[in-house]
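Input for the complex:
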Amino acid sequence: MTESTKYLLSEDRMPKAWYNLAADLPGPVPPPVHPGTGQPMGPEDLAPLFPMGVLEQEASTERWIDIPEPVRDVYRLWRPSPLVRARRLEAALDTPAKIFFKYEGVSPAGSHKPNSAVAQAFYNKQEGVKRLVTETGAGQWGSSLAFAGNLFGLTVEVYMVRISFNQKPYRRALMETYGATCIPSPSPNTAAGRAILETNPDSNGSLGIAISEAVELAASRDDTKYALGSVLNHVCLHQTVIGEEAMLQMEIADADPDIVIGCVGGGSNFAGLAFPYMREKMNGKAVRCIGVEPTSCPTLTKGPMAYDFGDTGKLTPLMKMHTLGSNFMPPGTHAGGLRYHGMAPMVSQAMEHGLMEARAYQQTECFAAAVQFAREEGIVPAPESSHAIKAVIDEALRCKAEGKAETILFNLSGHGHFDMQAYMDYFAGKMTDTPFDDAALQASLETLPKVAV
Amino acid sequence: MTESTKYLLSEDRMPKAWYNLAADLPGPVPPPVHPGTGQPMGPEDLAPLFPMGVLEQEASTERWIDIPEPVRDVYRLWRPSPLVRARRLEAALDTPAKIFFKYEGVSPAGSHKPNSAVAQAFYNKQEGVKRLVTETGAGQWGSSLAFAGNLFGLTVEVYMVRISFNQKPYRRALMETYGATCIPSPSPNTAAGRAILETNPDSNGSLGIAISEAVELAASRDDTKYALGSVLNHVCLHQTVIGEEAMLQMEIADADPDIVIGCVGGGSNFAGLAFPYMREKMNGKAVRCIGVEPTSCPTLTKGPMAYDFGDTGKLTPLMKMHTLGSNFMPPGTHAGGLRYHGMAPMVSQAMEHGLMEARAYQQTECFAAAVQFAREEGIVPAPESSHAIKAVIDEALRCKAEGKAETILFNLSGHGHFDMQAYMDYFAGKMTDTPFDDAALQASLETLPKVAV
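Predicted:
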């Protein structure tokens, strides 16, 4: 009898609640603090930017938070996502390890991002918001919010870093297909944008500038809110639907992971798969959780734990997290979603409490792993997800060397259909690895805000 | 209780046999004939180009043909594909009709094409072939054969029409990711290519030239065969896994289609979904099968039934089919996969026997339908599939006008991730509809080969 490749879950078994790791961590997740006063900031302080439904989740220590039925109803368009056994990759590696992956690329926008975008759109709609404004770099979050906002009748405006706006027209076209407006940042629509354009009309923009524009617009209009696609507690919370589903599917597969792997940028796709397993780890289960980041932006492997701004523009509250300093400018790489100076405070806490480990890889070795994966399993991974795959292959080869039949589960967070330029550069030998600039990191860390908390 | 959105089928229920409509048609499917002699051609005549496993299927009148286990094993990477109820589209149209779609875009290459590519790669491998050569226009077939060939250890060379090679670098990158070589056609690798390049070094190429190059290479080397992605009987056969799965899933959904819809270019995705339902129609079931083509290339709605060449280069055997004449040059549209002058002989026979109907739409109305679909259901359709969607919406609106709760099933044959330029042109108002040139059609039909058969 042939063994199964995919482990599907029927819609009626889709999780009914998100899991909140904050309920089980050995210590509290430090709250955001005001950069001027050093005072903790609560939901009311952030109310101009986010709806209360989201802010309550941000501060919650409840273990389970119900997924509203309208959100589950949209999830049904692609969820439960498949759990797949990578049998061909196992055979190619000649490893005794079992390799499973949770495939989030089946979502309409092609990644895990809609899991939170749909929830955020729902809470905004429920509180009478008419318009969502956000920023996007590579475009994954922008297209996810465009998709989600449209379903709830919200106007969505995405400020896209100008250089990406020009280089990634297909991502922009996807946002427009979902009915959103995509504006190159810096733009003349905001004071922040106009200030940049006055001195540099040809500015390529940056994620920091785009955040400033989006936040300015959200704060200035009553009917408008802001939405963020990673880092914050509520985003990690929404992504846990991935891990809760995976647990049910691994049960169907009659397997249990010894190792859980995800790539980390802001931290949310890793959190989504790994937090439920960290709960089991705290309950005594032997499981290693590994976050994989790029060598060029080694937040967990080289960044200290500190209070820092969430943005390069230094407009946000301070968050306690692993950080390279908000001044740190990672070199341009193809995994745009992993080029973030900070890390989700909850993931940072998980690191502090020994619930996870972290490692870093260069991008060319990640692309080599992604190509091997595509040739065995068919799916062309997003550049971000390729980091997880590189770690999976290394662990599977270790299992081979040690003769251990361990079970590995990873999050294939998205497909690479909108990132084929990166593959072209890789095949053309144009992709390079930059040695890490330790001096730049030290200089950046010296500018960390000095706040007594 | 919430009703289901997706109807999944477990892998152990994946069909074990393809369905061959030739077994049930009221008359025989006319064989291909030699253009010089007018004599029927059998498997042995085509053996230089195709493996015998495939040629036996081409001429078979067996009702069921077993799907080899290694083919089913590759199918498991994405099959059974989901059957989805388009509840949001139904609500947006305010129609009493139930709309279901079979989603073939979940395959690694993003369309239904791998259903046949995997089978063809298997039979070639089994007969000791080392290398497959094919042509591709938009790139769907080329990337599917690249994927399939790699899994069976075959070298794959794809001759891609030069203008597409230059305009669609991402499709080319996908083929290279799967390990295939993609060569712009005309190329200096063949006599056919060199002849063109001598007179026109900057030739944009054409599908006809690319076919000539691929066929020349396959015929000239013992270890090399050719592979075709649509039109032929064996390709339609392989695609019937779509319809056989859909039948099982519609049963799970407790629904039965009154109307089955697919877009038609060469005819294979429509055949794949509709042929099993035509069998039921011949057994007395009331079901309408509708093939939808572009107004710019109206093979079924304006082309007569005649013996004609399969290619513009007039190199292939003659096939009896609906045709616009192999000299007919449809205007450039974004649904490249539907720009074919002929039609699968089996689909043409189904038309002759009254088993199906056909209709044609302009591309802008199809893109409007595709955008509406994407905003309700999330999935961005391939330009080809948008033709099916336009017909579905029209039928659903007819049901509304007539107050009839009919059940509509269509084939969403692929996603549009590699076709976003078409959406950009649509949003920019750059997409136009060309009035059909009846005079050009008449001129083309006058050059149909005069063969007494």
